[in-house]
Amino acid sequence: MPQGQPLTVPADGLTTRARRNAPLLAVHTGPGKGKSTAAFGMALRAWNQGFSVAVFQFVKSAKWKVGEETALSELGRVHDERGVGGPVEWHKMGAGWSWTRKPGTEIDHAAAAADGWAEISRRLADERHDFYVLDEFTYPLKWGWVDTDDVVEVLVSRPGTQHVVITGRDAPPALLDAADLVTEMTKVKHPMDAGRKGQKGIEW
Q: Which domain does 67 fall in, by range?
């Protein structure tokens, strides 16, 4: 896309403005680092445009507060106090639920994931937000805790101009087919390969 211009213009009868304002479904997947980071960067742009932003984290411990949560929550407070940007909500789907699936049983985690998706579905139907980040949402899909076909149906038929960004490895093919934008993060080199653990300001 040289200089932001599409290579082809579809004969769909829509104006350039209509296509530009169409709702976007994006998926960030693959084994490389940066999937969530890229999604939160998009959320910052959405906040700057005055969009209502909602983040739903599916596979992070409720006790772990990532830097983006702090930053976006503060930006939500700026909106509430000064009217700048847009409102922000941040939700963790299940207390203590981490991608190691401990503590709690698999049944508990599956129920938490299903409840989380049910809430998102309701909000999409009600057009509660303009921009959603479903962080690490590919994992409950992969593990069968949330039905992929149902997710795709809800996302494809969502009303209005709600944008949705989904992150996580191993995104199912049906989700990739439904998405408008798919980015695969490919690892070329990582500090962990040399035995280095995550660092402050880099991983959190």
A: 21-98+106-161+174-185
- Phi (first) and psi of residue 84, to 5 degrees: -90, 140
Here the CATH number for the domain that contains residue 88 is: 3.40.50.300
Rounded distance between C-alpha atoms, residue 183 and residue 164, angstroms: 14
- Tell me, yes or no, whether 149 lies in a domain: yes
Tokens of 89: 């909500």
99, pLDDT greater than 70: no
Residue 1 belongs to some domain of the structure: no
Quick one: pLDDT at residue 105?
Answer: 63
pTM: 0.88
What distance in Å separates the CA atoms of residue 65 and residue 39, rounded to the nearest whole number? Answer: 16
When divided into structural domains, the chain yields a total of: 1
Instruction: Note whether residue 64 is domain-resident.
Output: yes
DSSP 130-184: SEEEEETTHHHHHTTSS-HHHHHHHHHT--TT-EEEEE-SS--HHHHHH-SEEEE
Residue 137 counted as domain residue: yes
pLDDT category of residue 106 using cuts at 50, 70 and 90:
low
Query: What is residue 196's predicted lDDT score, i.e. its pLDDT?
Result: 81
Task: Give the closest residue to 149 by CA, choosing from 188, 110, 175, 182.
Answer: 175
